Amino acid sequence: MVIVMAPYAGETALADVVAHVEAAGGEAFVSRGVARTIIGVVGDERVLAGLVVTQLPGVAEAVRITSPYKLVSRENHAGTSTVYVGGVPIGPETVTLIAGPCAVETPEQTLAAAQLAKAAGATLLRGGAYKPRTSPYAFQGLGRAGLRILAEVSAEVGLPAVTEVVDAVDVDDVAEHAAMLQVGARNMQNFTLLQAVGSSGRPVLLKRGLTATYEEWLMAAEYIAQRGNLDIVLCERGIRTYETATRNTLDVAAVPMIRSMSHLPIIVDPSHAAGRRDLVLPLARAGLAAGADGLIVDVHAHPESALVDGAQALVGESLAALAETMHTFPALMGRTLAVPSAAEATVRE
Ligand code: PEP
Ligand code: MN
Questions:
Q1: Of 14, 21, 80, 139, which residue is most buried, by most CB within 10 angstroms?
Q2: Could you say which residues of the chain have pLDDT below 70?
Q3: Whose CA is closest to atom 3 on ligand 1?
Q4: pLDDT of residue 47
């Protein structure tokens, strides 16, 4: 069950509802959104059946939700949510481009990639300081030094940064340096990390695990939401299939399927799905045509010398073609290219 509090309801009313739920044997998880506060109630059937809350002061409505994920479910919220990242919207009205290097390598490399990304229409900068690599011998990222470089470049080019956090102990540090925290495919079911980013106060980009079903993915999102953070954006980045010619297989159906199951925005990562520069644009277009709210794309000024994922990084003609798509595609989908909203930037500071 999800209890929606009225906008005027104060802390006392909220505490009374929580006490009521707990007295009945249920568990209450309070989630404070900008517009409204909601309480996710967990308990067995008997507890929920006996719970009458609509008459309590400050309660706007109580909704019985049948899906196993509650707070992130479509049943909980009819419209698609818009998540603001440093003032940049990701939601149903817009197409948001997040672009930048796969990994932060040097200040010069990060700045060059950020400038290219911005010129192509990006309003958010990506760049990994902590890199979860398949091989322990591969470049693992610059860690804290990388975070500082990312924050400096982000300020210099004026693009809020999105970066991955791989360990719960680093969440506060990463949250200080970036506007959005990314949970990578390999960590989609790292429940301690999900809870930590849920308490971070920053929006979260949750990538789909390599073998995760839609339900498992949304249950992972639910861990974040349960900690009071509904600023979650899902990212389809390709799944593991029997095909080896591409790095992963982009599951385009994830976009409309997730749309029907959840109110959270969803974006597509054609770079990590394809693993090859020449496939990034067609997959980006497929994702947008399927209704994605944005893209996250690897860009590098010198892909041949990139320390990570150079084969999929856009530059030159391939980047110009993406820029052209960002110019023309949003209108075809009845959307606009996302730009920062000054009002939201202030609200979220
Ligand atoms: C990344 O975005 O750099 C990354 C490692 O992605 P994924 O977790 O999807 O592999
Ligand atoms: Mn990568």
A1: 21
A2: 34, 343, 345-349
A3: 102
A4: 80
Q: What is the pLDDT of residue 65?
A: 86
Is 272 near ligand 1, meaning CB less than 6 Å away? yes
CB of 118 closer than 6 angstroms to any ligand 1 atom: no
Q: Which fold has domain 2-63?
A: Alpha-Beta Plaits (3.30.70)
Number of Cβ atoms within 10 Å of the Cβ of 24: 17
Same fold, 2-63 and 83-348: no
Q: Which tens digit of pLDDT belongs to each residue from 76-93?
A: 888 999 999 999 999 999
Distance (Å, whole) CA 151 – CA 273 = 27
Q: How far is the CA of 224 from the centre of ligand 2 (A)?
A: 23
Instruction: Give pLDDT, residue 237.
Output: 98
What is the 263 CA–ligand 2 centroid distance (Å)? Answer: 27
The domain defined by 83-348 carries CATH number 1.10.1370.30: no
The H or E element that residue 130 is part of is none
**Measured from the CB, is residue 184 less than 6 Å from ligand 1?**
yes
User: What are the angstrom distances between the C-alpha of 245 and each of 12, 15, 229, 271, 296?
Assistant: 59, 55, 38, 14, 22
Q: Rounded to the nearest 5°, which phi and psi values hold at 193?
A: -65, -40
Per-residue pLDDT of 24-59, as tens digits, reads: 999 998 888 767 888 988 888 788 888 889 899 999
- Residue whose CA lies nearest to ligand 1 atom number 10: 185
Q: 119 CA distance to ligand 1 centroid (A)?
A: 23
